[in-house]
Protein backbone atom coordinates (compact mmCIF):
# COMPACT_ATOMS: atom_id res chain seq x y z
CA UNK A 1 0.00 0.00 0.00
CA UNK A 2 1.46 3.39 -0.94
CA UNK A 3 1.79 6.04 1.75
CA UNK A 4 -0.92 8.16 0.13
CA UNK A 5 -3.31 5.22 0.52
CA UNK A 6 -2.51 4.50 4.19
CA UNK A 7 -5.53 4.74 6.43
CA UNK A 8 -4.04 7.01 9.05
CA UNK A 9 -6.00 9.29 11.35
CA UNK A 10 -6.00 13.01 10.48
CA UNK A 11 -4.52 15.70 12.69
CA UNK A 12 -6.84 18.72 12.33
CA UNK A 13 -5.89 22.09 13.78
CA UNK A 14 -8.24 24.70 12.33
CA UNK A 15 -11.78 24.82 10.96
CA UNK A 16 -12.00 21.01 10.87
CA UNK A 17 -11.73 20.78 14.67
CA UNK A 18 -14.92 19.95 16.58
CA UNK A 19 -16.94 23.18 16.70
CA UNK A 20 -15.15 24.55 13.60
CA UNK A 21 -17.18 25.60 10.60
CA UNK A 22 -15.99 22.71 8.39
CA UNK A 23 -16.22 19.99 11.03
CA UNK A 24 -20.02 19.72 10.88
CA UNK A 25 -20.29 18.93 7.17
CA UNK A 26 -16.92 17.20 6.59
CA UNK A 27 -16.45 15.04 9.70
CA UNK A 28 -19.43 14.97 12.09
CA UNK A 29 -20.92 11.49 12.20
CA UNK A 30 -18.11 10.07 10.06
CA UNK A 31 -15.52 9.41 12.77
CA UNK A 32 -14.94 6.68 15.32
CA UNK A 33 -12.88 8.98 17.54
CA UNK A 34 -11.71 12.57 17.96
CA UNK A 35 -8.95 13.00 20.55
CA UNK A 36 -7.11 16.14 21.68
CA UNK A 37 -3.54 16.01 20.40
CA UNK A 38 -0.52 18.09 19.47
CA UNK A 39 2.20 17.99 16.83
CA UNK A 40 5.72 19.14 17.56
CA UNK A 41 7.98 20.81 15.00
CA UNK A 42 5.24 23.06 13.60
CA UNK A 43 4.27 26.72 13.70
CA UNK A 44 0.77 28.06 13.11
CA UNK A 45 0.10 31.18 11.03
CA UNK A 46 -3.09 33.17 10.56
CA UNK A 47 -4.83 32.77 7.25
CA UNK A 48 -7.94 34.37 5.80
CA UNK A 49 -10.40 32.75 8.21
CA UNK A 50 -8.34 29.63 8.84
CA UNK A 51 -4.78 28.81 9.92
CA UNK A 52 -1.76 27.43 8.09
CA UNK A 53 0.72 25.05 9.74
CA UNK A 54 4.34 25.02 8.59
CA UNK A 55 7.46 23.21 9.78
CA UNK A 56 9.23 25.15 12.52
CA UNK A 57 10.32 25.34 16.13
CA UNK A 58 7.03 25.06 17.95
CA UNK A 59 3.95 22.94 18.39
CA UNK A 60 0.38 23.00 17.15
CA UNK A 61 -2.68 21.90 19.12
CA UNK A 62 -5.62 20.14 17.52
CA UNK A 63 -7.49 16.86 17.38
CA UNK A 64 -6.64 13.47 16.01
CA UNK A 65 -9.69 12.22 14.11
CA UNK A 66 -10.16 8.74 12.73
CA UNK A 67 -12.89 8.27 10.12
CA UNK A 68 -15.06 5.18 10.21
CA UNK A 69 -13.64 2.50 7.91
CA UNK A 70 -16.74 2.73 5.70
CA UNK A 71 -16.32 6.52 5.43
CA UNK A 72 -12.53 6.72 5.15
CA UNK A 73 -12.15 7.03 1.37
CA UNK A 74 -14.87 9.69 1.16
CA UNK A 75 -13.42 11.67 4.09
CA UNK A 76 -9.97 11.54 2.47
CA UNK A 77 -11.42 12.79 -0.82
CA UNK A 78 -13.38 15.58 0.90
CA UNK A 79 -10.41 16.75 3.00
CA UNK A 80 -8.00 16.67 0.04
CA UNK A 81 -10.50 18.77 -1.95
CA UNK A 82 -11.11 21.21 0.93
CA UNK A 83 -7.36 21.67 1.46
CA UNK A 84 -6.75 22.03 -2.30
CA UNK A 85 -4.36 19.08 -2.28
CA UNK A 86 -3.74 16.92 -5.32
CA UNK A 87 -0.83 14.43 -5.11
CA UNK A 88 2.17 15.76 -7.03
CA UNK A 89 0.53 19.02 -8.14
CA UNK A 90 2.95 21.97 -7.88
CA UNK A 91 -0.03 24.34 -7.50
CA UNK A 92 -1.13 22.77 -4.19
CA UNK A 93 -2.08 25.17 -1.40
CA UNK A 94 -1.40 22.45 1.19
CA UNK A 95 0.64 19.26 1.15
CA UNK A 96 -0.58 16.18 3.01
CA UNK A 97 2.20 14.45 4.92
CA UNK A 98 2.42 11.76 7.60
CA UNK A 99 3.85 12.88 10.95
CA UNK A 100 3.72 11.93 14.63
CA UNK A 101 0.82 13.23 16.69
CA UNK A 102 1.02 13.16 20.49
CA UNK A 103 -2.28 12.41 22.20
CA UNK A 104 -2.85 14.63 25.23
CA UNK A 105 -3.91 11.54 27.23
CA UNK A 106 -0.64 9.84 26.28
CA UNK A 107 0.58 7.89 23.30
CA UNK A 108 1.88 8.71 19.85
CA UNK A 109 0.28 7.94 16.49
CA UNK A 110 1.26 8.59 12.90
CA UNK A 111 -1.31 10.80 11.23
CA UNK A 112 -1.99 12.78 8.09
CA UNK A 113 -1.60 16.52 8.48
CA UNK A 114 -2.03 19.27 5.89
CA UNK A 115 0.86 21.75 5.87
CA UNK A 116 1.18 24.89 3.77
CA UNK A 117 2.91 24.09 0.47
CA UNK A 118 6.42 25.48 -0.17
CA UNK A 119 5.55 28.76 -1.96
CA UNK A 120 2.97 29.66 0.69
CA UNK A 121 5.33 28.61 3.50
CA UNK A 122 8.00 31.01 2.20
CA UNK A 123 5.48 33.87 2.09
CA UNK A 124 4.20 33.09 5.60
CA UNK A 125 7.71 32.99 7.05
CA UNK A 126 8.48 36.35 5.42
CA UNK A 127 5.30 38.25 6.28
CA UNK A 128 2.84 35.98 8.10
CA UNK A 129 1.39 36.48 11.58
CA UNK A 130 2.10 33.67 14.03
CA UNK A 131 -0.61 32.32 16.30
CA UNK A 132 0.93 32.30 19.78
CA UNK A 133 0.82 28.88 21.42
CA UNK A 134 -0.14 27.18 18.15
CA UNK A 135 -3.80 26.80 19.13
CA UNK A 136 -6.36 28.13 16.61
CA UNK A 137 -9.22 27.51 19.05
CA UNK A 138 -7.65 29.96 21.53
CA UNK A 139 -6.44 32.51 18.97
CA UNK A 140 -7.79 36.04 18.97
CA UNK A 141 -9.43 35.96 15.54
TrEMBL record:
GO terms for molecular function: transferase activity. It comes from the Bacteria. Residues 10-137 form the Gamma-glutamylcyclotransferase AIG2-like domain. Keywords: Transferase. It comes from Streptomyces alkaliterrae. Transmembrane segments: none annotated. Signal peptide: none annotated. This is Gamma-glutamylcyclotransferase. Pfam families: GGACT. InterPro entries: AIG2-like_dom (IPR009288), GGCT-like (IPR013024), GGCT-like_sf (IPR036568).
Amino acid sequence: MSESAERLPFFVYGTLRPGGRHHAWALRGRTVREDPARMAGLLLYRGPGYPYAVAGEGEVRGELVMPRSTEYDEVLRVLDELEEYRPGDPANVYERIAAEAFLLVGGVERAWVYLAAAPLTARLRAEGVLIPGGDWAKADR
